[in-house]
Amino acid sequence: MDFEPLPSAAGDATADETPPGRAVCSSGCGRPSTVCLCPYLPATPLPTSTTVVVLHHPHALRRNPLSTLPLLARSLSNLRLIPGRRLLPSSGPLIPNPVLLLFPSPGAADLASWCRSTPPAARANPTLLLLDGTWKQAKEMHAASLPFLSSFAVPVSLPVDCGVDGDSMFEGKLVVKKEPHKGCVSTMEAVARALRLLEPEGRGAEIEETMVGVLRAMVAFQAEHLQHRPMKPRVKMRKKKDIKREEEMKRDARLE
After folding, report:
1. How far apart are CA 139 and CA 148, in angstroms?
2. Cβ neighbours for 122, distance < 8 A, ≥ 6 positions apart
3. How many CB atoms sit inside 10 A of residue 215's CB?
4. CA geometry: angle at 20 spanning 19 and 26, to 5°?
5. SS3 for the chain, per residue?
6. How does strand 87-88 pair with strand 4-5?
């Protein structure tokens, strides 16, 4: 399928940019030399029968230094990254392959169950579509793209428990940042888990292990950095209505 993305914001930077003067790996990963991930990346991007398409918010790379998209791009050959806030129909014809929208929406089917119930011929060479951004951004992107996607895409998801808080980086070896719910994972881990199920002839397990190894190394570097960094206490954010109520109470007290 040909997707037509919205143009990205001018001047978007990538997550691999580093401050002047800091040594940067030029061999492949583009990260600071002290946290180079080249030894963990595959020698060449991994080929897959699944076409992976990621619609990422224009700010996903510029404002998220922990984005896994740069590593994902260096890990898979059959990958397309599209900057934008929604997907639009293109002038090209739709390809016959199944398009799987991997997003934890209420009506999404469990991906493993979908694979078991779908004949191999009907799920050969699928297109796996993901939305990348903050969870708020991803929800907005999903809602904006749904009028187009609902006519052909199959909504699927990995198991997510909305009743349980997600892990933080210090509670899981693959957690890039604090997740809102149990089962919510980074884009790279979501792709790895999905490819394990979608790739034929057991190849998915090998691809998953390679990608997870890269992600595990990234998280280990970040966790080590945070352990030696003094953490400032976070200021508790208050809602505007609470602040307004307090101001009204103080004003009433002065009038008494």
Report:
1. 15
2. 98
3. 24
4. 90
5. CCCEECCCCCCCCCCCCCCCCCCECCCCCCCEHHHCCHHHCCCCCECCCCEEEEEECCCCCCCCCCCCHHHHHHHECCEEEEECCCEECCCCCCCCCCEEEECCCCCCEEHHHHHHHCCHHHHCCCEEEEEECCHHHHHHHHHHHHHHHCCCCEEEECCCECCCCCCCCCCCCCCCCCCCCECCCCHHHHHHHHHHHHCCCCHHHHHHHHHHHHHHHHHHHHHHHHHCCCCCCCCCCCCHHHHHHHHHHHHHHHHC
6. antiparallel
Ranges of the chain with pLDDT below 70: 1-22, 26-28, 30, 60-66, 90-96, 160-184, 223-239, 255-256
Q: What is the pLDDT of residue 92?
A: 39
Counting every residue written for the chain, the total comes to 256
